[in-house]
Write a structure and sequence with these properties.
binds xanthosine-5'-monophosphate; 326 residues; EC 6.3.5.2; GMP biosynthesis; Rossmann fold; glutamine amidotransferase; ligase; GMP synthase (glutamine-hydrolyzing) activity; 40% helix; 12 strands; GMP Synthetase, Chain A, domain 3
């Protein structure tokens, strides 16, 4: 029978056997999946694991600081933070196609991990064991929706599955590959991770890069970061965090509409709110949020975020819409 204890025991043993005395790195994204995967691998191989947090510039407000603080405090893991904003933004320049964005982001992640790998080996000196393994928090739905399951269509390339480059030199460790999100949360809890990490709403590895419909630029990211922070703040203030699965906030950068703000005409961009409820992200329904909360978010975003003159609500279930817009 399935218990979190069994899963942990089984994986710890398998990981120890696979890794031996060598080393592994784990990409941390701030989300539940990578945090649980890291904690599990840490339990198996301890200090042979180094976590790498890639700040790709596509993170939400405050996210980097949260990883640096919360996760390290909870696990005592060795953490390497890499500032890779310029690298990612340069690679994404001029790209609007969602799948192309996903592949670029997946590839750049790996390039940064390779660099980190070389640095970790160099720091360990001549006696250092090689870093041969990359830990990823891939879940069962990521595999299925990237076309890795049997008989399924490729819906979108999750950055850690279909978005991986072909010349990957790491061997992968993916201890959550057979699990759904609720099971991952239970495993995380059993491993002693704090509630703030285990109950965190999902956030995709490619970050805000797939929440800007159109080209990704620093200016647009800053704008979306502001709008997203407002939405999150108001949802939390209304006590709705546990009622919704997640609420992507999307910038329609290629769309403009006419508005009137202050005493003049504006020609700005719409922001889309996409609150959903779901059990496992494979299907979802749009959340019936209270009108007052929606009104507050809308007023604040149009008042506080430059260049945004309209807020719209996505009332599409999955299917036919996916949760993220790209
Ligand atoms: P979709 O948009 O496919 O999303 O309905 C399903 C769930 O997966 C998340 N998501 C991702 N997570 N890397 C991730 O780590 C990705 O590339 C990725 N794409 C989507 C999404 O936020 C939702 O929870």
């Amino acid at each position: 029978t399935w218990t979190t204890g069994n899963v942990i025991e089984e994986q710890v043993e398998a990981i120890r056997e696979q890794v031996g005395t060598r080393r592994a790195i784990c990409g941390l994204s701030g989300g539940v999946d990578s945090a649980v995967a890291a904690a599990l691998v840490q339990r198996a191989i301890g200090s042979q694991l180094t976590c790498v947090y890639v700040d790709h510039g596509l993170m939400r407000k405050g996210e980097t600081e949260q990883v640096e603080k919360d996760f390290v405090a909870a696990t005592g893991v060795q953490l390497k933070v890499v500032d890779a904003e310029e690298r990612f933004l340069t690679a994404l320049q001029g790209v609007s196609d969602p799948e192309e964005k996903r592949k670029i982001i997946g590839r750049e992640f790996i390039r940064v991990f390779e660099q980190a790998q070389a640095e970790i080996v160099a720091e360990a000196g001549a006696s250092g064991e090689p870093v041969e393994f990359l830990v990823q928090g891939t879940l069962y739905p990521d595999v299925v929706e990237s076309g890795g399951g049997t008989g399924t269509a490729n819906i979108k390339s999750h950055h850690n599955v279909g978005g991986l480059p072909e010349d990957l030199e790491f061997q992968l460790i993916e201890p959550l590959r057979k699990l759904f999100k609720d099971e991952v949360r239970m495993v995380g809890q059993e491993l002693g991770l704090p509630e703030e990490i285990v109950q965190r709403q999902p956030f995709p590895g490619p970050g805000l890069g797939i929440r800007i419909v159109g080209e990704v630029t620093k200016e647009r990211l800053d704008l979306l970061r502001e709008a997203d922070a407002i939405a999150r703040e108001e949802l939390t203030a209304a006590g709705l965090d546990r009622d919704i699965w997640q609420c992507p906030v999307v910038l329609l950068a290629d769309v403009r509409s006419v508005g009137v703000q202050g005493d003049g005409r504006t020609y700005g961009h719409p922001i889309v709110l996409r609150p959903v409820s779901s059990e496992d992200a494979m299907t979802a329904d749009w959340s019936r949020l209270p009108y007052e909360v929606l009104a507050k978010i809308s007023t604040r975003i149009t008042n506080e975020v430059r260049d945004v003159n309209r807020v719209v609500l996505d009332v599409t279930s999955k299917p036919p819409g996916t949760i993220e817009w790209e």
